[in-house]
Write a structure and sequence with these properties.
Layout: H1 2-10, H2 20-25, E1 29-34, E2 37-45, E3 52-60, H3 62-109
Length: about 110
């Protein structure tokens, strides 16, 4: 398992974090420590007969994870700023429409 871990770590593969918790709850994936590094071991099965296959082991770099987390935080901040601009524009547009309605009502009343 450890040799596979070293081999896969060099290939720069990354675990799929989207389904990690679901697989963990089902006992299909486990986190293992290998020296100063970490890896996930995912159970694999033969599609035809369901027989166990060797686990898929993928190295996990804490630096890559923390770097990705920081990148995502920056992306979220950019999205939040864009959403705020959209909301401000929406409010401004509503105010313009209200003013246009008032002007139209004034014209009708005259």
């Amino acid at each position: 398992m450890f040799l596979t871990f070293l081999k896969l770590k060099k290939s720069k593969r990354m675990i799929n974090l989207k389904d990690y918790n679901e697989k963990k709850e089902k006992g299909l994936i486990s986190l293992v420590k290998a020296g100063d590094s970490f890896a996930t071991a995912t159970k694999k099965f033969d599609a035809e007969d369901g027989a166990d296959l060797p686990d898929e082991v993928v190295g996990v770099s804490m630096k890559e994870l923390t770097d990705r987390k920081e990148t995502l935080k920056l992306e979220i901040a950019e999205i939040d700023a864009f959403i705020e601009d959209c909301e401000v524009l929406n409010v401004q547009e509503e105010e313009v429409v209200k003013e246009e309605i008032k002007d139209n009502v004034k014209e009708i009343v005259k």
